[in-house]
Specification:
mainly alpha; globular
Length: 189
């Protein structure tokens, strides 16, 4: 397993997931409850920033690796899934939205793995619709984790709209990837 700063940052994203989840198991009488949502939001946002940073550094320092390319999306999906499960538990996101987003991530990850095995991974390369979906999702989750008004803006409502948009784009992007893979799927016996 290669070790470098980009891979360390990716591992760091995975390691902070239990910390973010643990914040929601702190007893209510502890003073940490007052900053729980803010702390979880900051953890999620810093993790999102390290996602960008590790990719940038890997390319800039020419430290890309097959292991890093594998681990990076795994870390992203784990962080998003953990945050969505927290939000469902708190009643801030409907379970169906979490199921759509998490289910799509599992499905497309498996599809990409299979397509790579048959040498057709370019058929399911990341598309613009996937990037827009990720942007909406990554903007919605911190707003829903924080959940309190900011400078007069109702972040709960904005986050809710964004997560619904992300779910719709999730279905759209899954359809797109499945359509791109369909010729390869039907050709296999």
């Amino acid at each position: 397993m290669p070790t470098n700063i980009p891979i360390f940052l990716t591992w760091l994203r995975i390691v902070v997931i239990p910390l973010m989840v643990a914040l929601y198991y702190v007893p209510e009488h502890w003073s940490l409850m007052a900053v729980r949502d803010l702390s979880a939001t900051l953890i999620f946002m810093v993790a999102g920033a390290t996602d960008w940073l590790d990719g940038y550094l890997a390319r800039r320092w020419n430290e890309t690796s097959a292991f890093g390319a594998f681990l990076d999306p795994v870390a992203d999906k784990l962080m998003v899934a953990a945050a969505l499960i927290i939000l469902v538990h708190l009643g801030r996101v409907d379970a169906i939205i979490a199921i759509i987003i998490i289910g799509r991530e599992i499905t497309i990850s498996a599809l990409r793995e299979w397509m790579a095995q048959i040498g057709a991974q370019k058929s399911v390369a990341v598309s613009m619709i996937g990037k827009v979906k990720t942007t909406a999702q990554m903007a919605a989750i911190p707003l829903l984790l924080y959940y309190k008004p900011v400078w007069g803006f109702d972040v709960q409502e904005i986050g809710t709209w964004l997560i619904y948009i992300a779910a719709a784009l999730t279905l759209w992007s899954m359809g797109y990837y499945m359509r791109m893979a369909w010729p390869h799927l039907t050709a296999q016996k």
